[in-house]
What we know:
Number of strands: 16
Helix content: 40-55%
Largest sheet: 5 strands, antiparallel
Number of helices: 22
Structural class: alpha+beta
Shape: elongated
Oligomer: single chain
Amino acid sequence: MSVDQKIDRNKTDNEGRIYLDDERVILTSSAVFGILRKDLMDNISEERMKGFLIRYGWNLGKNDAKNVLKKNQSSIEELLKKGPELHMMRGFTKVKRVDLQLDYDEDGQIEGVHVEGFWSGSYEAEEFIEQFGNSDAAVCYTLVGYASGYYSEICKKTVVFKEVACKAIGADNCYYVGKTIPEWNGSIEKELKYYHDEPIVRELEITYEKLLEERNNFEKTFTIHERLTQEFTNGNDLQTIADAIYEEIGIPILIENADMSPLAGSGFSSDFFTNGYLDFKSAVHIQQKEKDYQTKEISDGVNQYLTTPIMLQRKCFGFCSFIYEVNQPVTKVDLMILERVASVCSLYILNEKTTFEAVERIKGHFLDQIIDGGHLTEKEILTRGKYIQTDLNAPYCIAALKYDNGNAGSENGLFIHDQVIESVQHFFKNRFNVLIGQRSGILVLLIQKDHNQKTMKEVCQSLLDYLKKEFPPSVFRMGASTLSESIQQASEYYKEAMTALKMTDASEEIMFFKDISVAGLLIHSKDKQAVIQKAKHLLGPIYAKKDESAELIKTLYVFLANGGNLEKSMDELCLSMSGLRYRIRRLEEMLGKDLRQPAVTYELLLTLQVLDAEGEIILK
């Protein structure tokens, strides 16, 4: 029987009443539901609209099921078949069930339901497309609610339907699946909330409570922020800031630098650093390597940490951490406070950094004046040194530092140069009285003698090791002057440092002026090619066949280096006296010179040292 026939059969008198299965119904355009849906979305939100339509469909389905149960004593299977018929009679959709599985318990009651089928021509899908266009999710909420309500009432067991394909998404037909809750295996939990009506008044109460909580959190955070700002503007240090935070909220706090060395802390016991703290440091170091600078919760098995980075100029300068017991909850307000502590710490570090860099610039300019010489008297230099807390009466040396950063572009090279200067400053911070300047891309350092009895070579080597670790691709070399006690001679010692720097190579990354031989100075201060050419002429046939004459060349060098002493030369060369005398005679013949003449021996020894320095011959 068609829908029209059913309606006509139940239609009574001319008073405008229409009955369907003895129940009064009304006819209206499906477009009205599309408009209603749009108004609901605009006024009460999409989520509340979805719940409203599902519950509306649920009540329709449940009411139809009750009427069917009153009039029929058929089997459950037969009763369930009437649901799709009523669905179609209401004009909602055409239903085609493709699968129905019912499980019964020992008492013959429904225990499990699984049903699947198609909805063709869904009015909801059509009206949604008309009002909004295509959707990203299924939209037949009334149909889902109706089927769920009908099946649940007939089976006396909650059955929940879900639309797994929808015409509004682009499918040919809408496809539904209905199951009892256990059969969904937890995948329907998000949908169940739509079947329970949450009064909007209660929702407003919850929202108000949340707003009230947020306001209280904000007030507490603002109060603490004011306290932190006051501590900062009063010029107090990080320890005072840490004490203030612990006093306000009672949570132990730790402030560390980027290397995880403690800068300040409050609220934890003296044995804190021995109880699992290394595991915490290890976890944060992993975070640093990943460059994932975010607020995180970390546990070391003994304590729980809420830690956040101290960021400045897109670089991590340290970490702020709250310390909890393992099971102690971490609240949202704790997070808000900690991030504000980190902000104040970054301002403190910025202020310290700016002050430090300003002092270093003054020191660098002062070093330039000292090296230039002649403009300042010794008394003026010493007096100005006191202004920057530097006692220039102490012994010092001048060092020249040069680096090669490979193929870095000009912009990147300038950035690396600034980073190198900053790293050198950081290395010497709180270590020695050091003045740092730069000339033509070369860093110039005035390094005073270490009170800890470290030698200048140890200090310079430590600096180079530190820089090579910080800038792995770069190559660093350093030249250093001899130790001086007269500050007015700084310009001379600067020249020594630059000369020593020129003498460095891949095998000698640090060169001290006092270690440079006369031959080395000669070849680096004169025309090298002319010196080598002169040496070739002086040695003649020995140099021309230097590979074949290697033993003779070594004999000549040892003999000259020992001042012509035959016994010492014989022992060093492991030769017999007759063998040594034979070689000496042969050398005199080849060179045409008397090796007993002081002027001749000096010139030959110097020549051999020059060739050795240039790698032309090997003497050792």
